[in-house]
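Holo prediction. Input below; ligand is iron/sulfur cluster.
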Amino acid sequence: MQMKDLISSDKWKKFGADFNDHSGMTAYAYDAAGDHVIEKRRWANQLCPIIRGGEPHREESVCAKSHKAMAELVRKEGKIIVGTCQAGLLNIALPVFVGNDFAGIVGGCGLLPPKGEVDADVVNAITGMEKNAATTLGQNIRRLSPEEIETQVRYLEDRVLDIVARYKEGYRKTKTRTFKSLIRDVQRKGRCHQCGACVTFCTAMNYGALELSETGRPMFRDPNKCIECGVCYMICPAVDDLNEMLKAKVGWQPPLGRTEQIGVFRARDEALRTRATDGGTVTAILSHLFEEKLIDGAAVTRQAGPFKRIPWLATDADQVIESAGSSFDFSVSGAISLYAQDYSTYSPSMRMLGPATHKGLSNVAVVGTPCQINAVRKMETLGVVPSQSVYCLLGLFCSGGYVFGDKRREKIERIGNFSWEEVDKINIRDRFLVRLKNGEQLSLRLDELDFVKRKACRYCDDYTSEFADLSFGGIGAPEGWTTVIARTAKGVKILEEAKETVLEQYDEAPDAERMITLREVIEWHSAAKKESAAQQLVKLPNGR
Ligand SMILES: Cc1cc2nc3c(=O)[nH]c(=O)nc-3n(C[C@H](O)[C@H](O)[C@H](O)COP(=O)(O)OP(=O)(O)OC[C@H]3O[C@@H](n4cnc5c(N)ncnc54)[C@H](O)[C@@H]3O)c2cc1C
Ligand code: SF4
Ligand code: SF4
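Structure of the complex:
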């Protein structure tokens, strides 16, 4: 913090002139490094310019020495000090703090204290001036009464308080980013995931400033209701401001985030597995948590058509089993040609946190993609609603979400040489896997589908839900099994208990070599996503 951060040089000059007018003293201001902030001063008397002189040794001997000593003292004491310089002249010094940051000192000197007089011997020693002349010049210098000193102290104090308060207000205004900043920094750059975290928070607080459009885009409902708290900006997964705090909160470590355990699992329940995306582990764990009454709600998604899942709040184990699977299960709903609107593999389950709180649920498991997990963890880090109802965060691995209309859907058919009518199930791992109703398995490279990848996903660098309690993906696991990473103490506890009740492990005692391979596969995909996001981010106008 520098004095010139608070106000400009010209304003410090004006500050000095005002104080000189008010007190008759020579005004000064130094920054924390001891450099002058008021360059040209109006002298309080004829003696001071002679004492100070132009030579460095004189300045060093009296004025600068006095100011340095005062600066050290006021900084240490954190309060106003009234003293005298070696020549016997009054010196009032006041520290300038912005919070705990010491910016410098301001003050005045050059008049005499009550009953004080100039020390002619010192003036003679410094300047060589005749003692009589020094005494005569000293007699022309005004003495301040204790009341007058008090008045000048209050004046300085008020002015400094005002400068700091204005600075803080201006800082708050420029630094607090609001939803308008989200529009500028996130939406206009195509980086909005449409997770709905901003609206979820604003609505949970009853501010009512934001809402979601019909297409899921967050927007102002009433800008006048925005109190400019800046929380929507901080919790947005496309904003990095809280990332270091977030990492500290979960004990994040490179390269995959915190990884206490990694293993391959599937649900013991075979019927459940047939509905699931991979091994049905997410659903099995949620059922277990419901059975044990550890959760009273789960923010998940539910099939609403081919390539379409909608956020859903499950409140018991049966409902959670209904929600198993991903967006790519064609057995659940009708033919894809029935749906004319855009298809999306993305579904903002975390938006169910608001309704969960309204229902009075207090232990909710949130299942979501890394971007959604990031937003909820940020809410928790700030301690803002509705994150107080979160019991645990179950994150999915994610290479990207896909959105497409009919034309692009037909293009995918051509690339894969299949017809959507024949498709039974689709899954995303290291490739886009298509299982046909006749049992045939096809696979497309993910880069072939880049033309339908959501724009926001191109900037996303989290493949494994690094801030979740537990993360789940198909990568590295045989078909019908799920790779699971337990990250936090809560995640480890949940996994350990689920192993006893609802999960079976692929390889009870995997050898070190197999574990390294599994980890390497995950790390490779994670690094590839980070690299790709970094390349996209540098292309953005004005950086991130
Ligand atoms: C958009 C997307 C991309 C993915 N990309 C990859 C990838 O590249 N590599 C990889 O290894 N794994 C990826 N996964 C994860 C993988 O598809 C499985 O979800 C994961 O392996 C868990 O399988 P499971 O059988 O154990 O879960 P299940 O028991 O089937 O449970 C899945 C849970 O996820 C919820 N869910 C389903 N779809 C969504 C959605 N769109 N948004 C939020 N929640 C949802 C369901 O409601 C259910 O609770 C992706 C998942 C999604 C949703
Ligand atoms: S990414 Fe989420 S929090 Fe950020 S602006 Fe979009 S909807 Fe809001
Ligand atoms: S890649 Fe996945 S986690 Fe990242 S923004 Fe897209 S949907 Fe969210």
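The longest helix spans residues 146-175. That is the main takeaway for now.
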